[in-house]
């Protein structure tokens, strides 16, 4: 009798845990009015073009060029941080500012060479639009490039796109500034939004913005890295997001 009672008790405990999980999942995803995406590594695979422009800047001064995988480990915090990590002596290098300018000028002319949306992304965005959900992009890439890339690859699909704009007093991620700007633009609150990204910067941005975060594994960081950096909801394909939304 005691055995049956204990078995029944464990069943109800496990059932309640599962029920709470699905309630939380519903609250995280199903009731949202806006999805805020990172750009590089989440919507677009930009790595080869970023590597090309980084190496162009380095080559002008005879600095060692970098592999795609090395650049992968350097991206996510904006152009200045990318170049700081890429050149000898970092920000103390007297050619730092010139290298940043060279990168931006070169990237502006080469950011469409090999960049492409990840498989399933356009279908995901179309699905969200058909559901009446707003779509935003916030990125640490410089603002002009963010807007042009979104218009090029996702015409009429992105409702607002914001990039790095320190001159306007908007701090880069993981500060919540770009997220707050998006919410302010639509007159929404953090309770109505969810954040989707591929890196630790995105996890921190969502946390600082008081948003739930879905981390993706098809971008610049792998599952193990994301878990180590606090990811709670992880998906391996855009189709999984569609499945969760219903």
Descriptive report:
The chain is an alpha/beta fold and 246 residues long. The chain folds into 2 domains: 24-45 and 116-245, Rossmann fold (3-Layer(aba) Sandwich), CATH 3.40.50; 47-110, DNA polymerase, domain 1, CATH 1.10.150. The protein has helices spanning 2-30, 47-59, 68-74, 79-86, 96-110, 121-130, 143-153, 177-186, 200-208, 223-228, 238-245; strands at residues 34-37, 44-45, 116-117, 134-142, 160-164, 193-197, 213-216, 233-235. Strand 7 (213-216), helix 10 and strand 8 form a beta-alpha-beta unit. Helix 2 (47-59) crosses helix 5, helix 4 crosses helix 5 (96-110) and helix 6 runs parallel beside helix 11 (238-245). It starts with a helix and ends with a helix.
Task: Tell me briefly what this model is.
With 246 residues, the chain is α/β, with parallel strands linked by helices. 51% of the residues lie in helices and 14% in strands.
Terminal CA distance: 43 Å
Number of helices, where a helix is a run of at least 4 consecutive DSSP H or I residues: 11
* Main sheet: strands, sense, barrel: 6 strands, parallel
User: Mind telling me the C-alpha Rg?
Assistant: 20 Å
The number of distinct structural domains comes to: 2
Describe the protein's topology:
Layout lengths: L1 H29 L3 E4 L6 E2 L1 H13 L8 H7 L4 H8 L9 H15 L5 E2 L3 H10 L3 E9 H11 L6 E5 L12 H10 L6 E5 L2 H9 L4 E4 L6 H6 L4 E3 L2 H8 L1
Parallel strand pairs: 1-4, 1-6, 4-5, 6-7, 7-8
Antiparallel strand pairs: 2-3
């Amino acid at each position: 009798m005691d055995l049956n009672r204990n078995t029944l008790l464990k069943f109800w405990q496990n059932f309640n845990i599962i029920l709470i999980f699905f309630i939380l999942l519903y609250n995280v995803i199903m009731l949202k009015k806006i999805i805020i995406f990172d750009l590089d590594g989440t919507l677009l695979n930009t790595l080869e073009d970023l590597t090309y422009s980084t190496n162009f800047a380095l080559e002008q001064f005879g600095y060692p060029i970098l592999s795609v995988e090395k650049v992968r480990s350097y991206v996510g915090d904006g152009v200045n941080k990318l170049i700081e990590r890429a050149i000898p002596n970092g920000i103390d290098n007297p050619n730092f500012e010139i290298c940043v300018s060279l990168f931006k000028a070169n990237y502006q002319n080469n950011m469409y060479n090999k960049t492409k949306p990840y498989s399933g992304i356009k279908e995901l965005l179309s699905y969200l639009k058909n559901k009446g959900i707003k779509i935003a992009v916030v990125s640490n890439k410089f603002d002009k490039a963010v807007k042009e890339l979104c218009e090029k690859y996702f015409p009429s699909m992105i409702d607002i796109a914001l990039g790095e704009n320190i001159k306007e007093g908007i701090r880069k991620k993981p500060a919540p500034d770009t997220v707050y700007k998006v919410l302010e633009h639509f007159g929404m609150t953090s309770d109505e939004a969810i954040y989707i990204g591929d890196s630790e910067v995105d996890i921190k941005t969502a946390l600082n913005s008081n948003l739930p975060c879905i981390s993706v594994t098809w971008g610049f960081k792998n599952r193990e890295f994301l878990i180590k950096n606090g990811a709670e909801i992880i998906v391996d394909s855009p189709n999984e997001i569609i499945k969760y939304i219903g």
